[in-house]
Amino acid sequence: MADLSLRHVSKRFGQVEVIRDLSLEIPSGEFAVFLGPSGCGKSTLLRMIAGLETLGAGEIHLGGARIDTIAPGDRGVAMVFQHYALYPHMTVRQNMAFGLRNIATPPNEIERKIADAAEMLEIAELLERKPGQLSGGQRQRVAIGRAIVKQPRAFLFDEPLSNLDAALRSRTRIELARLHQRVRATMIFVTHDQVEAMTMATRIVVMNQGRIEQIGTPMEIYQRPRTRFVAGFIGAPAMNFLPVAAVREEAGHLVVTLPGGASVTTTVPAAGLRSGAALTLGVRAEHVHPGSGAPARVDVIERLGERTLVYANLSDGSTIVYDEPGDVVLQVGETVHIAIDGAAAHLFDAQGMALHG
Amino acid sequence: MQTYQRGKSLGDRVLLAAVIGLALVWLAPIVWVIGLSFKPNEVLMHSTGGILAPPFTLKNYIDILAASSVFSWMLNSTIVAVGQTVLTLLIASLAGYGFARTNFPGRSVLFVLVLAALAVPEQAIIVPLHTMFAAADLHNTYAALIAPRLAFPFGVLLMTQYFRAIPPEIDEAALLDRASRIKIFFRIILPLSIPAQATLGIYTFLHAWNEYFWPLVSATKPAMYTLTVGLASMQTNFAQTEGIGFLMAQAVFAGLPVLILYLFFQRHIIAAVAGGPIK
Amino acid sequence: MAEAEGGIGPSHWTNAAFVAPYMLILLGMLFMPLCLGIWLAFQDYDMLGGWSGGVGIENFQNLLDDRIFRGTVRNTLKFVLMTTPAFVALGLFLALALNNTLRRSALLRAIFFGSSVLSVTIVTLVWRLVYLPDRGLLANALGLFGLPGVDLMTSQVWALPAIAIVTVWWIIGLPMTLFLAGLQQIPPELYEAAALDNAGRWRTLTGITLPSIRRTIVVVAVIEVILQFQLFGQALLITGGGPDNSTRPMVQFIYEAGFRDLQLGFAAAASQVLFALMLIAALAQFWAGRRKGV
C-alpha cells in the first residue's frame, strides 16, 4: 500500500523550475531519504508535503486522502526543522503541548503523551527548561519529541542533523533508525549527506535539478547506480570516472581500454554498441587493485587509519583513487600498477545513463 | 582581552579631558536648575549664584502640590502618553506582522505607502489636520491628542524589521501545530518580540510625553493641557518673574518622570534612536 | 504568482486585516490631511470668513511678497546652516571619543544623550534662566572672570546662535548615537589589519574609520537638516521670534498664520513651501553624497 503519493507535482519560483513533474510513491512505514545537492528541490518537496509551500501543479495524497488542498496543521504530518524551530519562550513541556492543546487534547492525555515521549527520548529531566538552556543535541531531541507526541501519519525531517557536531551526528543517526523501528510511522528525511542516507534509509530518493534520479534501497543505489550523477554522489571517496572507448566484444561482454592502454572486461552486454563509442567507466576505489595493470604515478596519499586512499595519475594525466591497507608503505612520486575489477565497474553513455548487464 | 597595552599617549589624555569638560558643560544647566529649585524665591530675586550655600527650602515643591495645575497636566500627559503607547504597540505589531509574515494582494504597494509616510513632516499636515478635528468637533479631547501620532510609520517599520529577523521556521512549526494566524501572532510572535515592544513602547511614551506642537493647537482649554503645553503657558514674563525657584521646581518636577524612565530604560531608548531594538 | 517574497503561507486577502487598522489611520491621519493641505494651499480659506473659493497660486504669491515670511525662510536656513555642521562635527567627535566599552564612556554617553529625553518646554525653561542677563548661569560664569553679563536674547546678531546652542545641547544625543551605531558596524579586522600595516592613529581615522562611515555621515546630515528645518518650540518659547523677527522660523510663521490669524489657506501654502524646501535640501544632500561616491 502506498501511504504517501506524489502525483505529477511541479513547482516554480519565478522563472526557476525547482520541481519538474515529479511522481513518487512511498509505502507506509518506510524511512525514505530525499538525497541530493543543495538546490535540487528536496527541501521544497518536503515543504510541499508539509503544506508550507503551495504546489504549482499536481496532487499529494497521504493515507488515501488528498492533502495538498488542506491546511498544514490538518495534514497529519509533523516536521523536525533544520534549526529545530522550538518556541524559545516556552518550556520543553509547553513546546510539546502546544500542538496538542490546539487540537483540544484532554490535559491528562497531553501529560501522558509528553511523559511517554520524554521517556523514550531521555529528556524527562529537561521538561521544565527553555530551549535556550539546552545543548544542540538536547534541542534536537525536543524537536523530535514535539513531533512524536502528535502521533503523525508521517514525520518530516528537514536536514535536522546538519547543526550537530560529527560525534553527535553519528549517534543521532543510530537513534533515529531505532526510533523508526519503534514508532513504525512513515518518515521522510531530507539531507545532502550521503552517509546519513545510506545509514538510515530503507529507501533513498536521489534528486537532482528538480527531478528524481533514482529510487532504491541503499545497497541498490550503491551497487547499481542508474546514472552517472547517482554514482558520483553516493560513496566516499567519490567514484572514479575515466573516459574510455569500447574496443571489442568478449563472450558477449564489452571490453574497454583505459587511458594508457590497459583493457577492462566489463559485464555490460556488447550488443547494440558500436566499437569506438565514447563511454565513461566508473569504478569505486575498493574495486581498483594495485599490483599489475596500467602504470600510474602516486600523487597524494590519504591515510584514514584502517585503510589508505591513494590518488595516482594515469599516463594521460587523469586521476584515479584506490584503496590500500592502512599500513601500506608508499611514497609520493612512486610508480604503481593498477588493475580495475571489470565485474564491479560501471559504464555510462554520453548522456550519463548507466549501461547495465 | 588585550594582552598588552601601550601607555596612554598625550593625545588620549587631551581627548579625555576635552570630553569630560564638555560633559560638565552639558550637566551644568541641569545641576544649577535643580539647585535653584531648592532656594527661596526672595533670595533668587537678587542673586542666583552660590547654589550650594544655604538657605535651602522645599517651599517651591510644596507650592506645586498646593496650587499649581501641574498635577492635572501630568495626569493628562500620562493618559495621552499611555494611551498612545498601548495603541501604537498593538497597531504597529499587527501591521508589522502583516507586512513581515503574511502574503496578501497589494502588500508591497501598501508597504511603499508606509515608507513614503516617513518623508512627511508634522508641520506639513498640521493645519489641515487641525481643520479636520475642528470639523469633527474633537479638539480638547484625549482622542484628538492621541490619534494623529498613531499614523507615524516608525513603529510599523521597526516591528516589521524585527519580525523579519525571527526565523520563519518558528511560524511554520506553529502552523504545523495547527495554530491559527491570530494564535501565532498572540502566542508566538508577540511574546518573542518583547524586546522590540519595550523599545518601541518607551520611545513612543517619551515622544508622546514631550510632544509640543499638536497639543499646543489641539488642547486649547487649560484643563486639557498636557504638561509640556501647560508648563510653556507659564513661561511668559520670565525676566520679571518673582518665582524663579517655583518655575524651576516645576521644570524639575516635570522632567523627573522622563529622567527616571531614561535611567531605567537607557539601553532601549538609545536602541530605538539607533534604529532597532536591542539584540 | 501565488507568493510574494518574505511572507509565510499562501497569499490571501484576509491577511490584509493585520495591516488594516494601521493603514486606515495612516490614510486618515496622514495622507488625507496631506492632500487636504495641498488643496487648501490653493484656496482662500480662513476660519472666520469661511471658504471663498480657489485662488490659484495667490497664496504663494502673497508669501513671496511677505517680508516677514521671507525673513522666516532666511532665519530657518541660517539656523539649519548653523546647527547641521555642529551636530555632525560634535556628534562624530563624541562618538569617536566614546566608542569603547569603558564604564567611564558609558556614563559620558548617558550624560550627552540624557538631555534629549527632556521636552522642549523644560529645555527652554532651563536655558532662558541660563541666558538671563543679570542672574543667569552664563552671567554668573562671566562674572567669575569679571566680565559683565550679556543679553543674548535682545541681540539680533546673537539670539539665533543662542537658540542654536540650546538645540545642540538638547539633542546632540541623536547624531552621537547614530555615529556610534555606524562605528560599531566597522569590522574589527579592518583595524587589526591597519595595525599590522603600521597605520598610526591619524591614518587609521582618515584611512579606515571615516571612509567606512561615509554613508552614516550623509544620513546624519540629512536627518539633521530635516529636523532643524522644523525649528519651532525653542524659538517660540525663548525669544517668541524676536528681536525684530530675527529668530522667527518658518514653522512659527505657519503656526501664527494658521492658529492665531486663522488664515488656513495661507498657512497651508507656507507649509507646502517648508515641505518642498526640506525635500529639496534632503535630496540635494543625498545627491551630493552620491557624487562623492557614497
Give the terminus-to-terminus CA distance of chain B: 22 Å
* CA-based gyration radius of chain B: 24 Å
What is the CATH topology classification name of chain C?
Answer: MetI-like fold
Question: Greatest chain-chain interface?
Answer: B-C, 101 and 90 residues
Considering the chains and any ligands shown, give keywords for the structure.
heterotrimer, A: 357 residues, alpha+beta, Rossmann fold, OB fold (Dihydrolipoamide Acetyltransferase, E2P), 2 domains, 6-stranded mixed beta sheet, 6-stranded antiparallel beta sheet, 8 helices, B: 279 residues, mainly alpha, MetI-like fold, 14 helices, 72% helix, globular, disordered N terminus
Brief summary:
The complex is a heterotrimer of chains A (about 350), B (about 280) and C (about 290). Chain A has about 350 residues and is of the alpha+beta class.
Tell me the layout of helices and strands:
The complex is a heterotrimer of chains A (357), B (279) and C (294).
Chain A: E1 2-13, E2 16-27, E3 31-35, H1 42-50, E4 57-62, E5 65-66, E6 77-80, H2 92-102, H3 107-121, H4 136-148, E7 154-158, H5 166-183, E8 186-191, H6 194-200, E9 203-208, E10 211-216, H7 218-223, H8 228-233, E11 240-250, E12 253-257, E13 263-269, E14 278-283, E15 288-303, E16 307-313, E17 319-325, E18 335-340, E19 346-348, E20 354-355
Parallel strand pairs in A: 3-8, 3-9, 6-7, 7-8
Antiparallel strand pairs in A: 1-2, 1-4, 4-5, 9-10, 11-12, 11-14, 12-13, 14-19, 15-16, 15-18, 16-17, 19-20
Chain B: H1 10-37, H2 41-46, H3 59-66, H4 70-101, H5 107-117, H6 122-135, H7 142-150, H8 154-165, H9 168-176, H10 181-192, H11 194-210, H12 213-218, H13 227-233, H14 244-274
Helix pairs in contact in B: 1-14, 3-14, 4-7, 4-8, 4-11, 4-13, 8-11, 9-10, 11-14
Chain C: H1 20-40, E1 43-46, E2 50-54, H2 58-65, H3 67-98, H4 103-114, H5 120-131, H6 137-144, H7 159-171, H8 173-184, H9 188-196, H10 201-212, H11 214-229, H12 233-238, H13 250-260, H14 264-291
Antiparallel strand pairs in C: 1-2
Helix pairs in contact in C: 2-14, 3-4, 3-7, 3-8, 3-11, 3-13, 4-8, 8-11, 11-14, 13-14
